[in-house]
Amino acid sequence: MNNKEMFDQVSSMEEQIGQLYQQLGDLKGHIKELLKENHRMTIENHHLRQRLDQEVEQEATKASEKSDQSNVIGEGHDNLARLYEEGFHICNVHFGSPRQDADCLFCLQFLNKK
Ligand SMILES: [Zn+2]
């Protein structure tokens, strides 16, 4: 290899190194953008998760309130049914008075309605 060839080769390597250096800079820029976006997404995800948790909690509270109410209604119905079994009217026609062993159509209707 003569001196001219050696000089050309070194020049070509220098050029390649220059191009690689530029590519490296570009890649670094992309990575910086990705890191920023990743950070933004992490924060957004955190906020969305918090909101989801809140809504799930609210739904659960609503659902448990609803089931409490239907339990109260069920309990009231059971109490009235027991009262009827014990021989008292629970209909609004004769409420609270003794049934004297006969079934009352008003009471039965009232019980079935519930
Ligand atoms: Zn009755």
Automatic annotation (TrEMBL):
UniProt region (Disordered), positions on chain: 55-74
Record's keyword terms, sorted: Cytoplasm, DNA replication, DNA replication inhibitor, Metal-binding, Zinc
Domain of life: Bacteria
Binding site for Zn(2+): 89, 91, 104, 107
Biased composition (Basic and acidic residues): 55-68
A Pfam family matched in the record: YabA
Co-factor binding comment: Binds 1 zinc ion per subunit.
Cofactor dependency: Zn(2+)
Main localization category: cytoplasm
Localization per Swiss-Prot or TrEMBL: Cytoplasm, Nucleoid
HAMAP family, per database record: YabA
Subunit and partners: Homotetramer. Interacts with both DnaA and DnaN, acting as a bridge between these two proteins.
Family from the record: Belongs to the YabA family.
Function in brief: Involved in control of chromosome replication initiation. Inhibits the cooperative binding of DnaA to the oriC region, thus negatively regulating initiation of chromosome replication. Inhibits the ability of DnaA-ATP to form a helix on DNA; does not disassemble preformed DnaA-DNA helices. Decreases the residence time of DnaA on the chromosome at its binding sites (oriC, replication forks and promoter-binding sites). Tethers DnaA to the replication machinery via the DNA polymerase beta sliding clamp subunit (dnaN).
Protein name: Replication initiation control protein YabA
Organism: Amphibacillus indicireducens
Source lineage: Bacteria, Bacillati, Bacillota, Bacilli, Bacillales
